[in-house]
Design a protein that fits this description.
10 strands, Peptidase_S8_His-AS, Peptidase_S8/S53_dom, Rossmann fold, about 30% helix, alpha/beta
């Protein structure tokens, strides 16, 4: 199982390698404060059109059916990103007080502080958080996949693409320490950094489902190789498809891609209370994190591995089957919530897996009687029938013997039988013979003389 990573749109790798991997210690007295300054550029949004219909993802992902079963209650999703505007109306009461990591050019490399609740300059983290746990707006014009889930924001003050590997590793460890159930990593790097790899491994070992984006470069990287943390072991990696369900050309591909979500132009939450349009694997990854929150809220005993298996096993295949562009297929929240385990071995271990109903083979009905029992029963039945026939036929045998084995009644029976009386001759019959009685002779008719 690999986690789906949401790729970042800005990858300042030359700057990362120059500043992040090789620290430059500044002269004394020039250590910056931990993000005391305001945003150099603040992303904003606009109101949705008054005639906007239901949010397209609701139908594409079958969310109304899924919400009948779960909403994400009791599940915490950590969003390691640019921050989250906890004051957005669609995120009311959903955002916890998180952490902020700021890179400092000194030996300690970074500092951890608590960010202001509304701090998100680029707006990327707010958009991701809204895709995961945004509240259902009036008329369902906007909604997150798991509106009941909680968001634990981890803000990288200078941008994820400019953070050092040790800073990112510390942010991942912070999510685990905060008790996150799911970790959403909506960024992708073409470099395998050992500190980040080790931190992701610690999160996986701690039972956290790590979901990461495949990236938006269309595999147009220097060596065309994998992206990280998407390709790390134990990570659930997410690619992107368009509204037609076909893979986006910008979505990276590889054997480390496990699932796909919709990455076409989508309305997302913007800092300050508005909305804007975004696209890419970052938001496809957020959909998978939201689907995972739905399943985990319904089946809280699932392990991270079992949760990932359920999501991939219930996905809608793209192009006829698994492939390196979309993995097992497009995430299906309702399918994941109702997925039946395909195990047919009937073992207690399979039946005991939380959230799984084993599909067992049709049992072979054993015969009611064995061959020996059936033979014994047949002989017993035949003997009983013979005895019954003998008892019923005994009187007939005795009568036949008295008749001398001839048909008809015996002489004794004939002697005892009464003789039938001869019926008297009818008067009319006598008259017809020419000897009518005087009383019965018809009266001659009067003749006219």
């Amino acid at each position: 199982m690999r986690a789906a990573t949401v790729p970042r749109r800005r990858l300042g790798w030359p700057l990362l390698l120059a500043v992040g991997l090789t620290l430059v210690v500044p002269p004394p007295g020039t250590v910056p404060e931990a993000h005391a300054q305001d945003c150099a550029q603040q992303a904003t949004g606009e109101e949705l059109p008054g005639n906007a219909g239901p949010y397209p993802l609701i139908a594409q992902l079958g969310l109304r059916q899924a919400w009948d079963l779960a909403s994400g209650d009791g599940v915490t999703v950590a969003v390691l990103d640019s921050g989250v505007d906890g004051g957005h109306p669609d995120l009311a009461d959903a955002v916890l007080r998180g952490a902020e990591f700021t890179v400092v050019a000194e030996e300690r490399e970074f500092v951890r502080t608590t960010p202001p609740p509304e701090r998100d300059c680029p707006g990327h983290g707010t958009a991701v958080a809204g895709m995961i746990a945004g509240d259902r707006a009036e008329g369902d014009r906007m909604a997150g996949v798991a509106p009941g889930a909680a968001i634990y924001p981890i803000r990288i003050a200078d941008g994820v693409d400019r953070a050092t590997p040790n800073t990112l590793a510390a942010a991942v460890d912070d999510a685990v320490a905060a008790g996150a159930d799911i970790l959403n990593l909506s960024f992708a790097y073409p470099v395998d950094a050992e500190p980040l790899r080790a931190a992701v491994a610690r999160a996986v070992d701690a039972g956290v489902l790590v979901v990461a984006a495949a990236g938006n470069e269309g595999n147009d990287t220097p060596d065309g190789g994998p992206m990280y943390p998407a390709a790390y072991d134990g990570v659930l990696t997410v690619g992107a498809v368009g509204a037609d369900g076909q893979p986006l050309e910008s979505s990276n591909s590889g054997p480390w891609v496990d699932l796909a979500g919709y990455g076409q132009d989508l309305a997302v939450l913007a800092p300050g209370g508005g909305y804007r349009a975004e696209a890419g694997t970052s938001f496809a990854t957020a959909q998978v994190s939201g689907a995972a929150a739905l399943v985990l809220s319904r089946f809280p005993e699932l392990t991270a591995t079992e949760l990932a298996e359920r999501l991939t096993a219930s996905a809608t295949p793209v192009g006829g089957g698994p492939n390196e562009r979309t993995g097992a297929g497009i995430v299906d929240p309702f399918g994941a919530l109702t997925h039946l385990d395909g195990a047919t071995d009937g073992t207690p271990e399979a039946a005991a897996r939380p959230g799984h109903i084993p599909v067992l083979p049709v049992p072979d009905d054993p015969p009611l009687l064995t061959d020996v029992q059936a033979t014994a029963l047949a002989w017993t039945g035949g003997l009983l029938l013979a005895v019954a026939l003998g008892l019923l036929g005994a009187p007939a045998v005795r009568r036949a013997a008295r008749r001398g084995w001839r048909a008809g009644p015996t002489p004794e029976e004939r002697a005892r039988a009464p003789r039938p009386a001869r019926p008297p001759a009818a008067p009319r019959l006598d008259w017809l013979r020419g000897t009518p009685s005087s009383t019965d002779r018809p009266t001659p008719r009067n003749r006219t003389r």
